[in-house]
Design brief:
Length: 302
DNA sequence: TTCCAGGGTAACG
DNA sequence: CGTTACCATGGA
């Protein structure tokens, strides 16, 4: 973490197989996205640390670094440390992709993807509540509508911060959603079920019955998965999605995912979608890289 | 118009 | 127990 410009920014050195541009392409996939803002090869994000709002702007001035600039206020050192760790997690900078690229060389499904999207990273969603809500919202609806619902949820119950005539948003906090009744979310055109799931989840988190730390303290992925599956509204797909996107399990694999099926169909030029058994065969050699493989397949759908 | 979307639950046989 | 109806709306 190198300081510069009177501490208004710092740099993060990036690993070898990293492309800021490829990551931004994914972050920019929906114009309805409210939690970050991509424009001119830069991404802005509002980040709250210990009660303070920091508006971050990330650019990549060289192939080996990300620059993080503080637009509204310069954080104290303790906040900078938190922000530094947050961005490393967001862009998954601590994973060495070399083994994945090596196995992909001899994989019919991955070979072209890793060439096409070289340096693309599994973009994490570090907040558990945000990830779980997003995956519940996304159940059985198209992505465009999922983004619409997420946008409504954020604009209705999230925190807004304005800077230079532009609004930036924080995802709603569990304590706010925990106070709602399903009819509040029905008004945003959530299904009654999804409204119940999300409010129930908010209450579990609010009551301290589940947290990212408590899940990560469990001994292995199976223990975490079974803990997630106890939560109403979280089935196999959602559990795997959270394991992959938030909790950092590289072997998590949402094999039931329709988007994944479509990506494989397109990649292999099939006339029909692959069966679960066929996907098991195709992914047999992906041990400990299933999450990355899935994410590269998602990337191919943009 | 019909069918399918980055599924899950609850109510059936 | 395995199977099925239902959810709510947008896009193709």
């Amino acid at each position: 973490m190198n300081k510069c410009q009177a501490n208004k920014s710092f740099h993060i050195s990036t690993p070898k197989e990293f492309s800021f541009r490829e990551c931004l392409q994914f972050l920019a996939r929906s114009r309805l996205e409210k939690l970050h803002f991509v424009e001119n090869d830069r991404v802005r994000k509002l980040f709250k640390s210990a009660g303070k709002n920091f508006l971050l702007e990330l650019t990549s001035p060289s192939a080996t670094s990300i620059q993080v600039e503080f637009l509204n206020t310069v954080p104290a050192q303790s906040h900078k440390t938190t922000i530094y760790a947050y961005i490393r997690e967001w862009f998954d900078l601590d994973t060495d992709l070399a083994p994945f690229y090596k196995l992909a060389e001899n994989d019919s499904l991955l070979k072209n993807l890793v060439r096409q999207f070289y340096g693309f990273r599994l973009l994490k969603m570090p907040d558990l509540f945000e990830t779980a809500c997003w995956s519940i919202i996304g159940q059985q609806i198209n992505l465009t509508f999922a983004y619409t619902l997420q946008k409504r949820l954020i604009e209705a119950y999230g925190q807004r911060y304005e800077f230079n005539q532009r609004a930036y948003w924080l995802f709603p906090f569990p304590n706010v959603i925990a106070e709602l009744s399903p009819s509040d979310l029905r008004q945003l055109q959530f299904t009654g079920k999804k409204a119940e799931y999300i409010i129930g989840l908010a209450r579990l988190i609010q009551e301290g019955k589940i947290s990212k730390a408590s899940l990560l303290a469990l001994p292995n992925i199976e223990a975490v998965r079974s803990e997630l599956l106890k939560i109403r509204g979280i089935g196999p797909w959602t559990a795997n999605y959270i394991l992959m996107r938030c909790l950092g399990f590289s072997s998590a694999f949402p094999i039931e995912d329709i988007g994944l099926h479509n990506a494989i169909k397109r990649q292999l030029n099939l006339t029909r979608k692959p069966t679960i058994a066929e996907i098991r065969q195709l992914s047999a050699g992906w041990q400990n890289w299933q999450a990355y493989a899935a994410f590269y397949l998602y990337r191919s759908l943009i």
